[in-house]
Design a protein that fits this description.
The complex is a heterotrimer of chains A (323), B (408) and C (298). In chain A, helix 2 packs across helix 12, helix 3 packs parallel to helix 5 and helix 8 packs across helix 10. In chain A, 74% of the residues lie in helices and 1% in strands. Chain A is globular, with a radius of gyration of 20 Å. Chain A has 14 helices and 2 strands; from the N terminus they run H-H-H-H-H-H-E-H-H-H-H-E-H-H-H-H. Chain A has a two-stranded antiparallel sheet. In chain B, strand 10, helix 9 and strand 11 form a beta-alpha-beta unit. By secondary structure, chain B is α/β, with parallel strands linked by helices. Chain B has 2 domains: 199 residues, 3-Layer(aba) Sandwich (Rossmann fold); 168 residues, Response regulator (Rossmann fold). Chain C has 298 residues and is mainly alpha-helical. Chain C has a domain of 198 residues. In chain C, strands 1-2 form a two-stranded antiparallel sheet. In chain C, helix 1 runs antiparallel to helix 10 and helix 2 crosses helix 9. The C terminus of chain C is likely disordered. Classes of the chains: A mainly alpha (323), B alpha/beta (408), C mainly alpha (298). Chains in contact: A-B, A-C, B-C. At the A-B interface, helix 1, helix 2, helix 10, helix 11 and helix 13 of A face helix 1, strand 4, helix 3, helix 4 and helix 7 of B.
């Protein structure tokens, strides 16, 4: 597996990553974060990178299409909102965010075990889609705890500058990419890919499929929960429609697919590219731009199924009918 | 998992590409010499509320065009009249996108002021964003209590007063001879922020006027089947109701009311019954149903009729809301002139202290806490037209009792 | 909340309403079921296709005064053509690559259509306004909505038609063969693309039928399709994936659950209950509630 060529390649990749991260770290110092829109765009791009990576880990590497990113994202946001509004956690509290991530991960495990053990992918996608809808409806009915459809308002006077958000989002993006890298390189990753490519064979050689799938699902949920938590801190108003909006799933999926599913850099490229592209579309086509995100998904799948980062590679998922 | 070399290189390339795109975004006019007043608004131009957003955008544009036709707003600080430049950004009927859009209006377009978004779920988060970026936000269509609770320093809220708005049905009911009045009332408020807030206030108002609700229940948003609920109403002998719900839901509700054979002498709709689409969808079945409205072109105020007529010429339908948005612009423009500066804090101060005379909504006066109220109107569908039945100022029509379905 | 025990006629009325409403879910679920059965495509744009068809019927009525029930003759054939077109244009290339790309294409199609409709038709809620729009038949003291009854009749006719087609015609047998065993079907000379095209045509054709039923009986807007798809998915999960009759029964059951849920609790909780039932079924009985009795073959 490891040849000299690959070693130097990975070194070059590491060097490039360091340079890019260093440049990104310098951005708030160079551009005035209070007036520069670029800082905000990068902030949202980072969140999308993390979300896309979270989805990539579950769906790209295990081949299970999850449509429940927004469920975990919203849950993470609600943990922050409920905790902060009751004084249990503070403003931009890392512990609070950890709690939000863990809550999402626990839900991921609870839902993941039955869904992943009983069902092949077909049902899994539906189940996760239903999960987001259930959480949305439950928060609407949640009375005092979730403040119903109004949602919870957080003390917006805490806000002073976007800079800490920028770095936290950057950290989340790096964390998500790092975790994905680590999981893929480890035995876990090999098991995941083996499971994706041929579940029966993977089971035959003794891989505990369920364990790995649930693990990936929980880690993905954890990351999505963290993103939701940060977004909650940024918006200061957590309500069911916006935080359990399907677009928190659709956009990351699209970004991931555009960049390249099942690759490490794909979600990064896709997220950055699309954040910029949507921004431009919104500017020049204010009344019709949502049409394009739908069209883009279709076009990318049909003509660029393997994503930007690998223009030619093996098929993503084999025909599940065979399994 | 193997990766190709293309990955990192492409990543670098895309970063360059993105940087280029961002530079390509229109940059702000240098602030040194101000030659226009930039006013931004995020509106739901796409998605669920796009019709509302379009109406609002139209009214803003009319107000801006009208003031610019007079040469703009005189600003003392610059000792000249500055034209208004209106920039509207889409929020896709999504609170998160609205917040992002505000960020762009503030940072890219460098707006001096913000005009209201549409409805509470969008106005509240954008008010928070205005607070974050310290830009004055001239807001409306957001129920006052939740806005007041946040003690915002950079926005104001011009909307109806809950106590007045919820008293309207009872004021109207009082005009009906006692023998004809409905005997058993139901309160059906949508399961949303607005519905939850207004529900208890309706009850309170009812008590004050000596009416009691024999039945109350939240109405699910976007349900296609209300017949179970309607059956419940029928089994309890309800013959009058207040229905607070979106227009699609109101259409569904009224149709199923007829199917189940529930006869209501008086049905006062809020939010969902005033649109032309409501009449178009129901036709004769919409007759006798009441609707709320922010404004009426029959108001005896300057330009009200003219604005209403202009809207009619453009869209071939009537509106009971554009006047509110037009008046919102009028007060902002007057406040800017009164403040003599484009400083947000000072203009907000001017909004709070100026007595606005003769807008299309009448005279407007803000309270020290940043709120201002207008009376909510009530209309009744009579022969395909919305006739104003409340407030009882000149031009109002008497309310009619709805006959049973089989007697129509 | 249960402050009175409802008399029997109310219970009956609820049951009827639930069944009549559930047929809408059922008819949407049958299309999904067929498409899923043959191609393993989770076509979540089905609800949006139904709304598109509803608009078709709406505009035919509004512009050319075509009676909505007559518009079936235009909308359903058009849907059949659109369905086969959809397969040929969007899914043919990726149909055999598993559910990953197909699911995303369906997703993209939904987003595209929703926004396209809201731009072209506006986001206003629409409903067809006819003399019989809110007419109800009275039968032994029970009120039965005429348009819903018609929707029910259309759903049953659609189901019977599809079942008959699958059982009695050569092409139908091919579809069934393909959904049971693709390799075998290929051995006996059936091209998968032909079968897939046909299945898609029928699936979207049913969406057309459901669209006309929606347009006549309910109010709709461009965004109501998504909830429709979700509910149809629930019906499908209740009935068992790839099971035509089960899908219809699943829809009826869901309709009844919602009708009773809305009566005894409230409208908001009715939805929570239906999704909870959905998740529970997916978790613990993924083969569907009617799997044993009716089996996967109609």
């Amino acid at each position: 597996m490891k040849t000299m060529g690959q070693n130097s390649k990975s070194k070059r990749r590491l060097a490039l990553t360091v340079v890019v991260v260093a440049l990104l770290t310098a951005v708030p110092g160079v551009l005035d974060p209070e007036t520069s829109y670029v800082v905000f765009l990068l902030f949202s791009a980072f969140i999308y990178v993390a979300l896309a990576q979270a989805w990539n880990l579950v769906s790209g590497y295990t081949g299970q299409v999850s449509l429940g990113n927004h469920a975990f994202f919203g849950l993470g946001a609600y943990v922050i909102a409920i905790g902060w509004s009751r004084g249990l956690i503070g403003y931009l509290d890392p512990l609070g965010m950890l709690l939000a991530g863990c809550a999402a991960a626990i839900l991921g495990i609870l839902v993941g075990i039955p869904l992943l053990s009983k069902l092949r992918g077909d049902y899994f996608a539906l189940g996760t889609l239903g999960l987001g809808e259930i959480l949305r409806l439950v928060t609407i009915q949640g009375r005092a705890l979730t403040a119903g459809p109004t949602g919870i308002f957080l003390p917006s006077s805490s806000f002073t500058t976007i800079v800490p958000y920028y770095f936290m989002a950057l950290f989340l993006a790096l964390l998500a990419t790092g975790v994905t890298y680590y999981m893929v390189k480890s035995n876990t990753g090999l098991a995941l890919v083996a499971t994706r490519d041929d579940e029966a064979a993977a089971a035959a050689i003794g891989i505990n499929i369920l364990k790995f799938k649930v693990l990936a699902f929980a880690v993905g949920a954890f990351l999505a929960g963290l993103c939701g938590a940060l977004q909650a801190y940024y918006v200061f108003h957590v309500e069911p429609q916006g935080f359990f909006s399907l677009s928190w799933t659709i956009y990351p999926v699209l970004m991931c697919v555009l960049g390249g599913v099942g690759t490490l850099t794909g979600p990064v490229v896709g997220a950055v590219f699309l954040t910029a592209a949507f921004e431009v579309a919104k500017y020049y086509l204010p009344e019709i731009h949502p049409i394009f995100s739908g069209l883009l998904i279709i076009l990318v799948i049909m003509f660029l199924p393997n994503g930007l980062v690998r223009l030619r590679r093996g098929r993503i998922v084999r025909n599940p009918k065979a399994a | 998992m193997m990766m190709t070399l293309r990955g990192p290189r492409l990543m670098g390339l895309s970063l360059v590409f993105v940087a280029a795109m961002m530079l390509g975004l229109p940059t702000a006019v240098p602030a040194a010499d101000k030659n226009e007043i930039v006013i931004g608004a995020t509106l739901p131009l796409t998605g669920m509320l796009s019709m509302m957003g379009a109406e609002q955008k139209w009214a803003y544009e009319q107000a801006a065009a009208d003031i610019n036709a007079e040469g703009g707003i005189y600003v003392k600080e610059y000792d000249k009249k500055l034209p208004v430049k209106l920039i509207v950004a889409d929020n896709e009927t999504d609170a998160g996108k609205a917040v992002a859009a505000i960020e762009r209006l503030v940072k890219v377009d460098k707006v001096d002021f913000l005009l209201s978004d549409s409805t509470l779920p969008l106005v509240m988060p954008t008010a928070v964003a205005a607070e974050k970026w310290k830009v004055y936000y001239h807001a409306t269509i957001c129920l006052l209590p939740p806005w007041q609770e946040q003690k915002f320093k950079w926005s104001t809220d011009y909307f109806f007063d809950g106590a007045q708005a919820t008293a309207v049905p009872f004021e109207v009911l009082d005009t009906i001879p006692e023998a004809d009045r409905p005997k058993k009332l139901a309160l059906l408020a949508e399961d949303s922020t607005d519905g939850r807030i207004l529900g208890p206030i309706f009850k309170e108002a009812g008590k004050q006027y000596g009416y009691e609700f024999d039945y109350e229940e939240p109405v699910a948003v976007g349900s296609k089947d209300y017949s179970s609920q309607i059956l419940k109403l029928k089994s309890k002998g309800i013959d009058g109701a207040i229905l607070f719900a979106g227009s699609g839901d109101c259409v569904t509700f009224v149709r199923q009311m007829k199917e189940v054979g529930l006869n209501l002498k008086y049905l006062h709709g809020y939010k969902g019954t005033w649109g032309t689409e409501f009449w178009n969808a129901l036709g004769q079945d919409a007759e006798y149903i009441l609707a709320d409205g922010f404004w009426s072109e029959t108001y005896p105020y300057p330009r009200a009729e003219e604005i209403g007529e202009r809207y009619y010429q453009n869209f071939n339908k009537r509106s009971v809301s554009i006047g509110l948005f037009y008046a919102l612009c009028q007060t902002l423009f007057q406040a800017i002139e009164a403040a003599g500066t484009l400083d947000g804090a000072k203009v907000r101060e001017a909004v709070l202290t100026t007595e606005f005379k003769g807008t299309v909504m009448g005279d407007i006066k803000y309270n020290p806490d940043g709120t201002a109220v207008f009376p909510l109107a009530a209309f009744q569908w009579q022969e395909g037209l919305l006739r104003r039945v409340y407030p009882f100022v000149e031009g109002a029509s008497p309310v009619l009792i709805a006959p049973p379905w089989d007697k129509r | 909340m249960l402050d009175f025990i409802p008399p029997i006629d109310i219970l009956l009325q609820l049951l009827i309403n639930g069944v009549l409403f559930g047929t809408m879910y059922g008819i949407a679920a049958i299309g999904l079921s067929l498409i899923f059965g043959t191609m393993r495509i989770v076509f979540i744009a089905q609800g949006t296709m139904i709304i598109l068809a509803a608009y078709g019927s709406f505009w035919l009525f509004n512009l050319w005064s075509v009676n909505p029930y007559v518009s079936i003759l235009i909308v359903v054939p058009a849907s059949l053509i659109v369905g086969s077109g959809l397969y040929q244009v969007l899914f043919r290339k990726v149909a055999r690559e598993g559910q990953f790309p197909t699911l995303l294409i369906a997703f993209g199609l939904m987003a595209l259509l929703e926004n396209l409709m809201s731009v072209v038709f506006s986001a206003d809620a629409r409903a067809i306004q006819t003399s019989y729009a809110a007419y109800a038949l009275t039968f032994m003291g029970l009120k039965i909505s005429f348009t819903r009854l018609m929707a029910f009749v259309m759903a049953v006719a659609g189901t019977v038609g599809v079942a008959f087609f699958l059982k009695k015609t050569l092409l139908g047998k091919a579809v069934r063969a393909a959904s049971e065993n693709l390799e075998y079907a290929m051995l006996v000379g059936i091209t998968p693309h032909m079968v897939n095209t046909l299945t898609f045509a029928i699936g979207i054709g049913l969406a057309g039928l459901a669209g006309v039923a929606t347009a006549t009986a309910y109010a709709f807007d461009p965004f109501s399709g998504f909830v429709f798809s979700l509910k149809a998915m629930i019906a499908l999960a209740l009935g068992g994936m790839g099971n035509v009759v089960g899908a219809l029964l699943g829809g009826l059951l869901l309709g009844v659950i919602e009708a009773f849920g809305a009566f005894f609790l409230s409208g908001g909780w009715a939805d929570v209950i239906s999704y909870a039932v959905f998740l529970l079924v997916l978790m613990f009985k993924p083969e569907g509630l009617f799997a044993s009795g009716t089996s996967a073959k109609p």
